[in-house]
Fold:
Amino acid sequence: MEGWRYIKGITAYLPKANVDTDQLIPARFMSVPRSEGYGDYLLYDQRRDVDGQIDPKFPFNTDKYLSVLIAERNFGSGSSREAAVYALVDAGFQAVIAPSFGDIFASNSVNNGLLPLRLEEEDHAALVACHQAQPDMPTEIDLKTSRIRLGSFEREFTLDETWRLKLINGWDDIDMTQRYLSSIEKYIDRACNITPWAWPNGVK
Amino acid sequence: MTQPRSLIDKLWDAHEILRREDGASLLWVDRHLVHEGSHHAFAKIGQKKICVKEPTLTFGVLDHYVPTNRVGIQIDPSIPRMMQTLRDNAAAHGFKLFDITNQNQGIVHVIGPELGLTLPGLLVNCGDSHTSTHGAFGALAFGIGATEVAHVLATQTIWQRKPRAMRINVEGTLGPSVTAKDIALNWISLLGADGARGHAIEYAGSTIETLSMEGRMTLCNLSIEGGARFGMVAPDQVTFDYVKNRRYAPQGQKLEEAIEDWLDLKSDPDAYFDRELTLRAEDIAPIVTWGTSPEQAVPVTATIPELKSLKASKAEAAKAALEYMGLEAGKPIIGTPVDQIFIGSCTNGRIEDLRAAAEVLQGRRVVIPGLISPGSVKIKAMAESEGLDKVFKDAGLEWAGAGCSMCVGMNGDLVAAGKRCASSTNRNFRGRQGKGARTHLMSPAMVAAAAVTGTICDVRGLLSGKAN
Structure:
């Protein structure tokens, strides 16, 4: 996975609270191998009208290359399906900005290079107002300085240090954990003695 | 003197291999449960040419994609393919798989406890958000995404930042037909679907102590619907009695020794909690959801909120939800006509749930169609030995096989667009039970009552003449 430090991206606003991961990608698409791409499945049913036709009023249904999404409260709640993040990433998004995120979704995002940027309700409302006043104005996000800017809106955001490092460096946890193998072995030895019941009965 | 510790602190400390400077902990994973949906993670380790590090701590089960009507396996070619992929991965990596012909098959969060794979003091991971269910045993159990599943497969460890501690105390005696489901929907409607975000919840208090393991599992299961990745209950005699004689649990003297250790798995008297909430059991009524988020719930006797009574941000969501659900603000929820019912899922597909539904259905006929899917093959057999299947079938309901069934919308069990389903499941999200489906969450007894009357109704009225 490639890391990134700074983006300046065309922005869409999805004015809906509680956009859960079932909406982000309906279950019926989740058996598709990732290599086939998940972008078309993003908010599949929400983007269409009752007859299954693409709804031109929906914020994503545009020719513009979107990479920043302003969302509402509790974005990505519900199911742990990482496919919800794949759909956003494959559709070109690098950052989602919301007052709150589902915890599992936020972890999944960082593991795929997608920034879950949390803003306090007030700041978020100010950002939405700026976007609505100038919908074509791109959003700038700098991971190193924790700054977000859209026109006259500029704030510092808080970001978990681990997440910052992972996003910037595109780190893969599996590779990183290899550095701690001896600590893991020591832990296993200790646990075998202290909590022998933690190993399943009758399994070697 | 040592610092008083909460249950969460104790479980965390016991599994922490190391804590990095940035605050992330590397934790040891005692049990890793995988299902068909874990295919992305297996593909990931496959690309890296990595084997499963601890196949004896990894257990697989077919549940999400399993058609509960076993003969109908051909409905969608992706279904048998997904099931076969997990079989292939189990064979390639050498871990135990509970296939659909296995007498231990069932929903992952039902069979983990049934088999004694879930024990007090363990860290349990699964690529499913309802993994919090296992916390009912005093385990540190949480759902993870595919990248994290791949990490656990490869290393048997997981990186995680310690969540803040939250305690929900429930005190007093629950009224008739008020269940763990109602406790959960009650606090979620109070705090919101993201109310416990970033927290691990310990459920405590006299009401929780009197809950069966089934009830505790329902409660912990629904933690994620209020935003908490973790839910837990301190283990006690109820827990130990449940664990005894389970296939993979310690036996005999080893169990006695384990219980000695497990008795310490409770919060110290002065342990610190970042948040604490106390509910009175007497104040909780049977609850139903009216919207498309679990927070959009009211006591069955109440009316759907007026939009003007809600905060602006919630009013907007409520308006959209009511439009989707075909309901009106300010109207009673009781009497809403229902098209079909479903009883099952990792939330309410256990034997106690089936008994509660059967109590309502005994000697009655339903007026709308419905499906009952037991949480596991074992529960199915137990229910049949008690004659519950006969009660359901005589009432006019369909008695199916075990799996995630109509909760998850990926195995062929679906609610059609525009249809209204009274459901014992965990999510009333748009399209969760099928594109355009309208889901009302409630307890199994409440679902059974809806089946009998064809409307959302108060189960207490149907049981008042019956003996308890």
Remarks:
- Chain A has one domain: 6-172.
